[in-house]
Amino acid sequence: MTATVPIPQTAMVLAAGQGVRMRPLTLDRPKPLIPILGKPMLDHALDRLAEVGVERAVVNNHYLGRMIEDHLAGRSVPAIVPSPEATLLETGGGVKKALPLLGPAPIYTVNADILWLDGPIPALRRLARHWDPETMDALLLLMATTRAVGYEGRGDYHMDPLGRLTRRAELELAPFVFAGVQIVKPELFAQDTPDGAFSTNLIWDRAQEAGRLFGLAHDGLWFHIGTPDGLKEAEDLLAIGGVRAIAH
User: Fold this and answer.
1) What is the pTM of this model?
2) Cys bridge to 16: 62, 90, 95, 178, which one at CB 3.0-4.6 A?
3) Orientation of helix 65-72 relative to helix 41-51, angle to 10°
4) 237: pLDDT confidence band, cut at 50, 70 and 90?
5) CB–CB of 226/150 below 8 Å?
6) Separation CA 163–CA 187 (nearest Å)
7) Minimum mean pLDDT among 25-39, 119-133, 135-149, 178-192: which range?
8) Is residue 58 within a helix (H) or strand (E), and if so which, with residue range?
9) 28 — phi, psi (to 5°)?
10) Three-state SS string across 188-215, please?
């Protein structure tokens, strides 16, 4: 693994979802602007990027997108570049539309509606340290399904001792779930991909087939906040022991 690769200077923050399962909280605001511990989830993600030195964040928006742009208008670190979507493009299509804003170098992508607490080393910095562009097309931050607060799914991936990933079979259980953060090569989204909406799963499946999809297990806490009940559970747990760590 290449230890000298610098922190990616650009991130794509995915904030265009409609947050249907979070209703009624999302009837008057987009899900990324729902506060947790007094700070919108979107700001938690952007603060993490700023802390490790990311300079630019391209933030897509669709549902109540003007609220997101207005909320971010005064932010300078990282510098915000809006990427509005007239129609919802999903994760892969959103990145593809933003390619002219992202540049050619590897980027972070971060889901704006997740929440994580770092371990001893910030997760974004750990990803950069493990990133090897010679052998990897994408490096995903993963959370152990047994430790993912609020997550009740079957998991996403198996990981071998070298970190190489294999997607679980349809009815199978997998030990890791994608934690909503990755380093990826942006050119992958331009190579034989649909012009409209598509999922980043298309990119990952191709990288897996080429043996170039890797993962890194998160060593802190991670919260899946998909419903109002999930939000309350996360806030209750954080109030017990994590407020000082995240509400800064």
Assistant:
1) 0.92
2) 62
3) 40
4) confident
5) yes
6) 22
7) 25-39
8) strand 56-61
9) -120, 10
10) HHCCCCCCCCCCCHHHHHHHHHCCCEEE
